[in-house]
Inverse folding.
């Protein structure tokens, strides 16, 4: 049994025009004193508090539970006085002279594997340095924190880190404080950067509370995490690996697909243009290998790197229809079809309308897309 990932609470303060700082070197105080007290209480309730390297550089924060009564409460509960303090970096370029490293108890820095060696040498005993694979992977960060016993994680910014966790669908709750003024500066950091967020007009968050903290409005949102399991991610990564086997094409996507029964048995896998058939799609190739009357199909999941097609020039039956005909009721995909060969792919809509559960895994979208980088 792997340890559970922590509950992730993202807390930030922004101006009414959506900025979390201005572009001056000094840190901008957006929160009211009452709101800063909320932040202190949230830190006290958390097992770990996390920021990005940009915030470390610009704010030089200590990131501590400040109220002595809260420190004492933690101690009385048998917890360390201060939560684990966490920094994320892509480059590994973290300055050991920052205040962050010289306060509180335990500290961890996460970085892509390639950056860990130099960073560990730089930080020495100031922090543990942990690699997250080829890239800065927020899922790997949560896995590692879970294994350290972290059950509640507070993500405290800045904008790039908010974007990293939100676009990966890894946030459970947002506490967003809105300060009653404008920053009015196009160069000032925004709450989030542009990105593909699972929460859009069609997938709205739940407003769980609003309150006034001094002159600051606190909005509390519950963010439904896409119910993907670690096994789903692993199997979808297998589908991405399968997509790398596709014979190259300048006119069609390279896609990989796996069909896996409820008990984890792989029923079939397939990839685009498999076996010399220039027209076959990955889902079609995989489904063709399973007898139509296999009783495991209704409980099975289709993992595919690209949204199943809803219209198709090459063959009469699009893949979304093939999936419906197979009886499969659950589809996990990495990447929605871009409007390159088909103006508006309706594969997800078609499946959902027929009652199939469709889950997207934005964490793997970049990898699925990379296999098709030559298509632009
Ligand atoms: N009002 C508020 O509530 C808060 C405001 N802030 C403000 O936010 C600003 C800082 O925000 P921002 O500049 O976005 O910095 P962040 O704190 O979000 O850190 C960004 C850094 O984290 C690493 N990183 C983040 N995402 C990735 C990724 N996908 N791949 C690789 N590395 C990644 C990089 O580190 P590296 O550069 O080492 O490669 C990147 O430069 C400051 O002005 C600060 O005052 C911050 C927190 C709260
Ligand atoms: N400016 C700002 C925040 N900034 C956050 O507070 C951190 C600094 O905390 P400390 O080390 O305790 O001073 C900083 O790194 C950033 O994450 N937070 C908020 O709730 N409201 C605000 O207006």
């Amino acid at each position: 049994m792997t340890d559970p990932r922590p509950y992730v609470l993202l807390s930030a303060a922004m101006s009414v025009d959506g900025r979390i700082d201005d572009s001056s070197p000094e840190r901008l105080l957006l929160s009211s004193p009452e709101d800063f007290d909320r932040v202190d209480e949230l830190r006290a309730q958390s097992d770990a508090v996390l920021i990005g390297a940009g915030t470390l550089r610009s704010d030089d924060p200590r990131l501590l539970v400040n109220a002595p009564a809260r420190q004492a409460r933690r101690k009385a509960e048998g917890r360390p006085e201060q939560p684990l303090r966490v920094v994320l970096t892509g480059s590994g370029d973290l300055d050991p002279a920052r205040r962050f490293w010289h306060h509180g108890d335990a500290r961890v820095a996460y970085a892509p594997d390639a950056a860990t060696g130099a960073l560990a040498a730089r930080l020495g005993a100031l922090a543990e340095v942990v690699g997250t694979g080829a890239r800065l992977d927020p899922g790997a960060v949560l896995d590692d924190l879970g294994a350290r016993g972290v059950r509640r994680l507070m993500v405290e910014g800045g904008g790039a880190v908010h974007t990293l966790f939100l676009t990966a669908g890894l946030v459970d709750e947002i506490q967003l404080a809105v300060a009653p003024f404008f920053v009015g500066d196009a160069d000032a950091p925004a709450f989030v950067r542009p990105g593909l967020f699972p929460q859009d007009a069609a997938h709205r968050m739940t407003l769980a509370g609003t309150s006034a903290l001094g002159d600051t409005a606190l909005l509390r949102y519950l963010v439904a995490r896409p119910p993907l399991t670690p096994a789903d991610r692993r199997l979808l990564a297998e589908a991405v690996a399968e997509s790398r086997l596709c014979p190259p094409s300048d006119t069609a996507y390279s896609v990989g697909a796996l069909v896996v029964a409820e008990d984890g048995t792989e029923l079939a896998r397939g990839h685009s243009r498999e076996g010399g058939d220039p027209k076959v799609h990955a889902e079609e190739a995989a489904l063709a290998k399973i007898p139509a009357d296999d009783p495991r199909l209704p409980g099975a999941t289709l993992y595919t790197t690209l949204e199943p097609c809803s219209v198709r020039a090459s063959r009469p039956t699009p893949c979304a229809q093939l999936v419906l005909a197979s009886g499969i009721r659950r589809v996990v995909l990495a990447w929605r079809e871009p409007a390159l060969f088909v103006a508006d792919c309706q594969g997800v809509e078609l499946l959902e309308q027929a009652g199939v559960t469709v889950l997207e895994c934005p964490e793997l979208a970049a990898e699925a897309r990379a296999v098709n980088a030559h298509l632009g």
The chain has a mean pLDDT of 92. The first strand starts at residue 7 and ends at 15. The domain at 230-375 is CATH 3.40.140.10 (Cytidine Deaminase; domain 2). The chain has eleven helices and 14 strands.
